[in-house]
Amino acid sequence: MYKAIRSPKASHALPTMYDLPSEEIGDPGLPDQYHLWQAELLSQTFCPPNYNSEEILVAGDLNLYYDVNNTNWYKRPDWFGVVGIDRFYKKVDSRLSYVIWDEKVTPLIIAEFLSPGTDKDDLGLKKAKPGKPPTKWQVYEQILKIPYYVVFNRYENKIYFFELVNGKYREIALTNSKFWLPEIELGLGLWLGSYQGLNRLWLRWYDKQENWIPTPVETEKQRAEAEKQRADILAARLRELGINPDDLTS
Fold first, then answer.
1. Residues 62, 23 contacting (CB under 8 angstroms)
2. How far apart are CA 102 and CA 114, in angstroms?
């Protein structure tokens, strides 16, 4: 089972989720529909079978505070998943932000959905400026040491998958645009299909049989279809016996 990297204890009082905001004045604003839908699809299909659903946290566009010495510094991943932590803050509240020194468990995986203005930062090509916060890559790789980092370029339908090896991100050569994460017994890959009415390639989770994890809506449709098939089979058998099934329900 995946063992999360935990933050060091601080000798002074640090702000909690309630002290650190989920929005900052001057932020560029909320993401577009695609960012919301892609994060939603990842969240709905992130169901590690070796973890109870109550100890799985998924989040999209949520401030991630990472530095105990600079408590206002944060990154805002498009999506991230954490295992081994309660899905509610202190078991009682939804999260306003994710504060590493307060939560004490780092995400297992972070995904960024590349945009024209963020490509250099997402792919580690941006340089940190003196006196300014570190880059996204530096935070994920060197500070938080996130085991898995994914960047999806929806414009070119290309996925970049990085695994932390000896403290450095190593890009993984993918087969069929898929990668297996043994810690959570799930794989992540590109699925061609319709979500929210939009047909395209999407990042999505799959199981060990390489079946795409269904969303709650898809699960309900599958259940309804299975019930209809059983009802049709039963009705056909009754007719073979000379019984009109409609008479049984009238």
1. no
2. 29
